[in-house]
TrEMBL record:
<dbReference type="InterPro" id="IPR036291">
    <property type="entry name" value="NAD(P)-bd_dom_sf"/>
</dbReference>
<protein>
    <recommendedName>
        <fullName>D-isomer specific 2-hydroxyacid dehydrogenase NAD-binding domain-containing protein</fullName>
    </recommendedName>
</protein>
<feature type="region of interest" description="Disordered">
    <location>
        <begin position="1"/>
        <end position="35"/>
    </location>
</feature>
<dbReference type="InterPro" id="IPR006140">
    <property type="entry name" value="D-isomer_DH_NAD-bd"/>
</dbReference>
<dbReference type="Pfam" id="PF02826">
    <property type="entry name" value="2-Hacid_dh_C"/>
</dbReference>
<feature type="domain" description="D-isomer specific 2-hydroxyacid dehydrogenase NAD-binding">
    <location>
        <begin position="171"/>
        <end position="290"/>
    </location>
</feature>
Length: 312
């Protein structure tokens, strides 16, 4: 199908030359892995041993990347494994995944939903993983029943959390400075318009103070903002550092509406699940300062109400 990119699969033999080539490649791979590896604290990851690629006469481990989006994930993986002929990396279109998943040992889901029906077809699968942290599209229970491990790459150890934090701040500044209107004004040579706002002096609520929330707070604090944050567990053992200097007011999920009432800006960093989908709803918006202020102005001026939903 359009957009699908399949890697050519070489015919494997068991000649002495091939075995020597594979052995040399494996040695080079192990050396490079030791060189490039990141030293992690003991116990950071559970130790999982899987027998992969041992079906029939084949000694190849096959990796499936789902869909053409986030292409760097496939490119980087292929570059890293280019001297490892015993590992094949393929990328197929999203619609093709159910038709080919039975041929693979590792599945990198990206933005493909992997439900119980697809998992049932993955008869050789050992690991389903995300090229990042989001696993909300994977039926973890179904994978567990099939004895398939499900994994993600922790954002705090890869730069993913930092990247997301920078993007969140970029988007926040873009909204405050009215980036779209500014682009129009520049094209029309309209000097001095629009009038934006500074982030200085604002109150920012971070919903979900995990790895991404922590990195956002680190980068926002020098802007001169007040930071509010929610987290299920604020015990010192669950935090990588002393955050009292970063967070001005802490709360749990039950304090979300109270904190929203104090916030000018809300940044959501929550795991997407049944509890968090749609968490920023009309009730949440109604307690935020700007919405309340707008309603008061609309009432005073007699203008039609916007930004709220009446239930009676």
């Amino acid at each position: 199908m359009a957009g699908a990119r399949l890697a050519a699969r070489p015919t494997l033999t068991h000649s002495p030359a091939h075995q020597l080539s594979s052995s040399a490649a494996a040695t080079a791979w192990r050396r490079r892995r030791r060189r490039d590896s990141v030293s992690l604290p003991r116990g950071s990851f559970s130790k999982v041993t899987c027998s992969i690629g041992s079906t029939g006469d084949s000694k190849v481990t096959r990796v499936l990347f789902c869909g053409p989006y986030f292409p760097a994930s496939t490119t980087y993986t292929k570059e890293y494994l280019q001297s490892c002929p015993f590992i094949e990396v393929d990328e197929v279109g999203l619609e093709q995944v159910p038709d080919v998943i039975q041929n693979y040992h590792i599945c990198v889901v990206k933005n493909r939903r992997i439900d119980s029906d697809i998992i049932a077809k993955a008869t050789q699968m050992k690991i389903i993983m995300q090229y990042g942290v989001g696993l909300e599209g994977v039926d973890v229970n179904a994978a567990t029943e099939q004895k398939i491990k499900v994994a993600r790459i922790p954002g705090s150890m890869t730069g993913n959390a930092v990247s997301c934090a920078e993007m969140a701040i970029y988007l926040t500044l873009g909204v405050l400075r009215k980036q779209k209107l500014m682009d129009t004004a520049v094209n029309q040579k309209d000097l001095g318009s629009p009038t934006g706002e500074t982030i200085f002096g604002k109150t920012v609520l971070i919903l979900g103070f995990g790895a991404i929330g922590l990195e956002i707070a680190k980068r926002l604090k020098p802007f001169g903002v007040k930071i509010l944050a929610t987290k299920r567990n604020w015990s010192s053992g669950s935090l990588p550092c002393d955050i009292d200097e970063l967070v001005d007011k802490k709360g749990g999920p039950e304090d979300m509406y109270e904190l929203a009432g104090e916030a000018d800006i809300v940044i959501t960093c929550l795991l997407q699940n049944n509890e968090t989908v749609g968490i920023v709803d009309n009730m949440f918006l109604s307690v935020m300062k700007k919405v309340v202020g707008d309603v008061a102005l609309q009432l005073h001026s007699g203008d039609p109400f916007t930004g709220i939903e009446f239930v009676n």
